[in-house]
Design a protein that fits this description.
The structure is a single chain. By secondary structure, the chain is of the alpha/beta class. It has five helices and five strands, in the order H-E-H-E-H-E-E-H-E-H. It has helices at 8-16, 37-45, 66-72, 113-124, 146-164; strands at 22-27, 53-59, 76-82, 92-95, 127-133. It has a five-stranded mixed sheet, with helices on both faces. Helix 1 (8-16) packs parallel to helix 5 (146-164) and helix 2 packs across helix 5 (146-164). The chain is globular, with a radius of gyration of 14 Å. The relative contact order is 0.25.
């Protein structure tokens, strides 16, 4: 895959540079169609990454996984989630948590991601990023829409390639 310094892949490559141990956490609701994208990506990455990467399926309560994240002592934490950003369905964005107030994201969790990220940064000192996917359908139901499934596969391929370089 060619390096794209101007797209999400280039941003991810720059973000993960110098990583020691990485937590990749998927957030989402399994019965809200595309909202499940973060967890689905984690499930698809399971068994395919190095031991320098910890995968966590957070579902709708990432705050419940703060302790395991802190115990792992990561240098980097990537949170993958669906977010309504007003973009074309399937659009992928890498966002600095400090900029979350600038993104009109609507999520399904109790604790706002910005606050969660601030706390995680304070407790671990890790470099944190949000990898957000614009959903097409978040109504009750199971399974990703074709558009968001394609985005999930693209993210999985990028992460497999970039995280393999940690070995």
């Amino acid at each position: 895959m060619a390096k794209d310094k101007h797209g999400v892949r280039g941003e991810l490559e720059e973000w993960v540079a110098g990583a020691g141990k990485v937590v990749v956490a998927g957030i989402g609701n399994p019965i809200r169609r595309d909202d499940f994208v973060g967890v689905k990506i984690i499930q698809d990455l399971s068994g395919k990454v190095s031991d320098r990467v910890q995968l966590i399926e957070c579902e709708t309560v990432p705050e419940s996984f703060l302790e395991p994240m802190m115990e792992y002592n990561p240098t980097h934490v990537l949170l993958i989630d669906a977010a309504v950003m007003g973009l074309k369905p399937g659009t992928i964005r890498l966002i600095d948590p400090a900029c979350v107030a600038d993104v009109p994201a609507v999520t399904t969790h109790m604790l706002p991601l910005r606050i969660f990220c601030e706390y995680l940064t304070k407790m671990t000192g890790a470099k944190i990023a949000l990898l957000l996917v614009e959903p097409e359908n978040t109504e009750f139901g199971e399974g990703l829409t074709a558009t968001v499934q394609t985005a999930a596969e693209k993210i999985e391929a990028m992460l497999l390639d970039l995280l393999a370089k940690l070995d």
